[in-house]
From TrEMBL:
Biological role: Cell wall formation. Adds enolpyruvyl to UDP-N-acetylglucosamine.
Residues annotated to bind phosphoenolpyruvate: K25, N26
Official protein name in the record: UDP-N-acetylglucosamine 1-carboxyvinyltransferase
Any one annotated GO CC term: cytoplasm
Name of the top EC class for this enzyme: transferase
NCBIfam families from the UniProt entry: murA, PRK09369.1
Record-annotated active site: C119
Residues with PTM 2-(S-cysteinyl)pyruvic acid O-phosphothioketal: C119
PANTHER family reported for this sequence: UDP-N-ACETYLGLUCOSAMINE 1-CARBOXYVINYLTRANSFERASE
């Protein structure tokens, strides 16, 4: 049976109705890695059914943990694992598995991983991860593309991150919870997913303070127990859906969402003329589809505008009359969606890491390629407002971060369907 790796979109239908936002991929992944630290069984709830999660489950099993995965619940028993080397073929499928180094080193005093390469959005170095682990007392050896780390026991340290890297903050936080003494991480990342990981670790008996601020203080403990934990909703999925209805026009209520995690995004949508009402865990988005250009969107670490919503927001700006400027400051190659949007009639000029988006009255359907997860979602959104049919190829990228994206949109009235490989 040919893979259903293309998504066809008929444009022109306003979105209406209610949708529940699933759990956050970028919280679930480090939290599943952190289960390796526990001397008891961990049950993690509201875990989305995604390709990346399946890879993480395969990695935990390959290390010798017993894992029951019945979405949205994952039960992990990592009390006894048999190896501390992450299989290369799994590492290649998901570069963020680099943050398994922290928990393996902290609990088993050894970790061996293959160096993750770059990806379509940038070179993605891991120097901050390695520098931080060395400061915590790990000896790091790199041969033939493998990174081999060991320690007798990690110890507390004062670490300052040159840039507030999400992955490095998570990796070092997980390493430090079982270290001897206190660790201070300065210029730490402040994303909601960092706070969720810290809350999970504290639920297991860790002592992490300051999560969500730029300085983290972690007092090492002897050991962690098991526990049950429900992860936060996915703010990037919620943002993508809010942008979709803003473009198509319509009236959509998002349930299981944290509007306070989307401050920068909601500000820009309101600047664009969208009506948004929020409650503690609910959000109503109304639009007549007649948008205004937004002077500037500049991506930045949280609480700035999320780089993961840059591509979907650019799809919106491509049909907002006037000139909008988009500056991508986090990743150096995250404009791969621009040429595909231009195939659909958008008018976008790129100069290094800035895109100048001249809104056009309409887009037209075309066959386009998804180069990565968020670029793929942006092309589906463009298809929702384009005349005729858009076919997004390489749709497997989208499945890495959106659980049944086509079904979610069809539930709101969109004319979207899966097609098999051509
Ligand atoms: C996380 O990636 C997310 N992934 C990304 O989401 C997200 O785009 C990114 O954070 C930024 O918000 C997961 O959580 C699994 P970083 P991560 O380390 O941790 C530089 C998606 O679409 N850097 O915060 O890899 C790096 O080059 C994905 O869901 C170093 O220089 O991102 C980049 O410019 C894509 N040295 C910047 O920091 C290092 O050692 C931010 O990267 C590490 C990072």
């Amino acid at each position: 049976m040919k893979a259903l790796d293309r998504i066809a979109v008929e444009g022109g239908t306003p979105l209406e109705g209610t949708v529940r936002v699933h759990g956050a991929k970028n919280a679930a992944l480090p939290i599943l890695a952190a289960t390796l630290l526990a001397e008891g069984v961990c049950v993690v709830e509201d875990v989305p059914d995604l390709q990346d999660i399946r890879v993480m489950v395969d990695i935990l099993r390959a290390l010798g943990a017993s894992v029951d995965y019945s979405p949205p619940v994952v039960r992990v028993d990592a009390r006894r694992i048999s190896r501390t080397e992450v299989p290369e073929e799994l590492m290649r499928q998901m570069r963020s598995s680099i943050f398994l180094m922290g928990p393996l080193l902290a609990r088993y005093c050894h970790a061996r991983v293959s160096r993750p390469g770059g990806c379509t959005i940038g070179s993605r170095p891991i120097d901050l991860h390695l520098k931080g682990l060395a400061a915590l007392g790990a000896s790091i050896d790199e041969v033939h593309g493998y990174i081999d780390c060991q320690t007798r026991r990690l110890h507390g340290a004062a670490i300052y991150l040159d840039t507030p890297s999400v992955g490095a903050t998570e990796n070092l936080m997980m390493a430090a919870v079982l270290a001897e003494g206190t660790t201070v991480i300065g210029n730490a990342a402040r994303e909601p997913e960092i706070v969720d990981l810290a809350n999970f670790l504290n639920r297991l008996g860790a002592r992490v303070e300051g999560a969500g601020e730029d300085t983290l203080v972690i007092s090492g403990v002897q050991g962690l127990i098991g526990g049950r934990y429900a992860i936060i909703p996915d703010r990037i999925v919620a943002g993508t859906l809010a942008i979709a209805v803003s473009m198509t026009g319509g009236d959509v209520t998002l349930e299981n969402v944290r509007p306070n995690h989307l401050g920068a995004v909601l500000t820009k949508l309101r600047e664009g003329g969208v009506e948004i009402e929020t409650g503690r865990d609910i959000m109503r988005v109304r639009s007549d589809g007649k948008l205004r250009a937004v002077e500037q969107v500049r991506t930045a670490p949280y609480p700035g505008f999320p780089t993961d919503l840059q591509a979907p927001f650019m799809a919106l700006l491509s049909v907002a009359p006037g000139m909008s400027i988009v500056a991508e400051t986090v990743f150096e190659e995250r404009f791969k969606h621009v040429s595909e949007l231009c195939r659909m009639g958008a008018n976008i000029r790129v100069d290094l890491r800035t895109a100048f988006v001249q809104g056009v009255p309409r887009l037209t359907g075309a066959v386009v390629q998804a180069s990565d997860l968020r670029a793929g979602a942006a092309l589906v959104l463009a298809g929702l407002v384009a005349e005729g049919t858009t076919v997004v190829e390489q749709a497997h990228h989208i499945d890495r971060g959106y659980q049944q994206f086509d079904e979610m949109l069809r539930g709101l009235g969109a004319r979207v369907r899966r097609l098999s490989q051509s």
